[in-house]
Specification:
about 170 residues, mainly alpha, 10 helices, 2 strands, about 65% helix
Length: about 170
């Protein structure tokens, strides 16, 4: 609407009953540089997995300007949808702190059998491989140990090819 020749914007959370419309509204708000932390967090809590997926993508792109979204990404690790978890793993690579490592370990312990999720988790580990391996081993049940062994080997490969001797010692001490 216009008032005194100026355009004013009203920003509110997408509230349609259709998931497609909520997704479109999120991206429209993004194109207007108008998504707020509350709107993105609402998308992350949406009942529809495709809206949560779009929320993860938006949150990942806003990590620098809205640092609190890193914690919200870590909370997406137990999401029931594999695509949401995959995107969360990609986003958590850009998040500092133990919450990101715990989130990556949770995703990895659940989805270690999927090579694309392993690649997403591996891309986010970086120099935090020893912490990741400890978190992964701590949270993994005995039933999932064989699948998680693949992830431990992957983390070891990361340290072996680009880590420091100190990181290798820390990893081996785990």
């Amino acid at each position: 609407w216009c008032r005194n020749g100026r355009r004013a914007r009203t920003v509110s959370a997408p509230s349609s009953s259709r998931a497609e419309a909520r997704c479109c509204a999120l991206w429209l708000l993004r194109s207007l540089d108008a998504p707020t932390t509350g709107i993105i967090e609402g998308a992350l809590r949406d009942r529809d997995a495709r809206v949560r997926e779009q929320g993860v993508i938006l949150a990942t792109g806003q990590l620098e300007s809205m640092p609190g979204l890193g914690d919200r990404l870590a909370e997406m690790a137990p999401d029931p949808d594999a695509r949401v978890r995959f995107l969360a793993a990609l986003g958590l690579g850009g998040v500092a702190g133990p919450g990101a490592i715990d989130g990556l370990a949770a995703i990895s312990s659940r989805d270690a059998g999927d090579r694309w999720t392993r690649a997403a988790v591996s891309s986010g580990i970086g120099s935090r491989a020893p912490e990741f391996v400890e978190a992964l081993i701590t949270r993994t049940s005995a039933d999932a140990r064989s699948a998680v062994g693949v992830m431990v080997r992957e983390a070891s490969r990361i340290v072996g090819t680009g880590g420091t001797p100190a990181e290798a010692r820390r990893l081996l001490a785990r």
